[in-house]
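User: What would this chain look like folded?
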Amino acid sequence: MKQTAKKALKLDHDYATPPPTGMLDEAGDYIQDLEAKLKKAFPPPDLFSRYCASDAQMRFYTKFPSEHIFWDSIVRSASQLVYWSKAKRISEGTSENIGPSPPQHAIN
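Assistant: Here's the prediction, encoded as structure tokens.
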């Protein structure tokens, strides 16, 4: 009876036993490589491109007829942009620099 029990245990599934040491390291490295390749092949879109992918969406969300016209309009006024925190400091008299605020990120 003992032999039959041992034989039955050997035929049982192996999911209950931990894998050999180091076996998962190689799989983890392979997964990381695949994720890096995926990110490189399909970079995440920015939110603007996601919601304004066509002229119809651009018109719906911004009321501008096209993306080109939108960016042309924005670029003209972006150089004069003053952030709220800077305007508040100026109104409180703690800042004398009245020029535009420095850019925070580049426009695509």
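Residues 44 and 50 are 10 Å apart (CA to CA). If you want, I can go into more detail on any region.
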